[in-house]
Amino acid sequence: MTDPWIALRRFTQARIALGRAGHAVPTQALLDFQLAHAQARDAVQLPWNINAFAGQLRDIGEETLILQTPVSNRSEYLRRPDFGRVLTEESRIRLCNFKARGVDVALIVSNGLSSTAVERRGIALLQTILEGLRVRQFHIAPICLVANGRVALLDDIGSVLDARVAVIVIGERPGLSAADSLGVYLSYAPKKGNTDAERNCISNIHPPEGLSYESATRKLLYLIEESVRRGFSGVALKDEMDGLLGEGKPLIE
Question: Which residues bind adenosylcob(III)alamin (predicted)?
Fold first, then answer.
């Protein structure tokens, strides 16, 4: 008997219509699952080569600033999410003494929960974001690179730089369909103590299966411009941008 779900497999990365081998799934499906699980674990556990990443940015002419959170290793990062939300005192002092203050956009990058995502996709996404910001003549602070950061770190750094908007590019929690997905969060008038309700998120950035770099950048630029125009971000900022799904050919006619 043919599984009616088989025709739907081309529309999704979800594990559907895997077939059967007796009372179990086929060997190939089991091996694929085990591989995806291993890749997800590696994405979380592997450290981020932040110096090499900074070197790649310098090679394309970007100024960077490497900062630290109090997190000492990946195990502590998972156990103490609060440590990933703030800078060390040394990094805070260094940032306070930095020349770039009162900027339009503070741009932060962290490996978050997927070093794989930042290593594989971070540079390409940053290039499209930076190009878009400069076309719109936003004054951008040097890119802050922070290993083992959480989303709320953007408010800590953004407030120190007195930025109008803070943006963080961060590795998303890996799943069994994608271990290398990036997320982008923004906060208008960033300050410590802001909650998730005061931030906007663009997630699932991992082309070709997920959102493209260009689509993510267009959405981010729209949200930045609207937050500056209206004076707030988060759930109060309604997304009235035209949808991004019309770019390609429809999967279902």
Answer: 151, 172, 201
DSSP per position, the chain:
---TTGGGGGG-SS------BTTB--HHHHHHHHHHHHHHHHHHHSPP-HHHHHHHHHHTT--EEEE--S--SHHHHHH-GGGGGS--HHHHHHHHTSS--S-SEEEEEE-TT-HHHHHHHHHHHHHHHHHHHHHTT--BPPEEEETT--TTHHHHHHHHTT-SEEEEEEEPPP-SS-SS-EEEEEEES--TT--GGGEEEEEEE-TTTSB-HHHHHHHHHHHHHHHHHHT--GGGS---SPPSGGGS--S--
Token duo for residue 201: 């998120």
151 carries a ligand binding annotation: yes
In tens, the pLDDT along 193-251 reads 999 999 999 999 999 989 999 999 999 999 999 999 999 999 999 888 876 554 555 55
Q: Which two tokens stand for residue 16?
A: 């559907």
Q: Is 201 annotated as a binding residue?
A: yes
CA distance 56 to 210: 24
Enter the pTM of the model: 0.89
Is 172 among the annotated ligand-binding positions?
yes
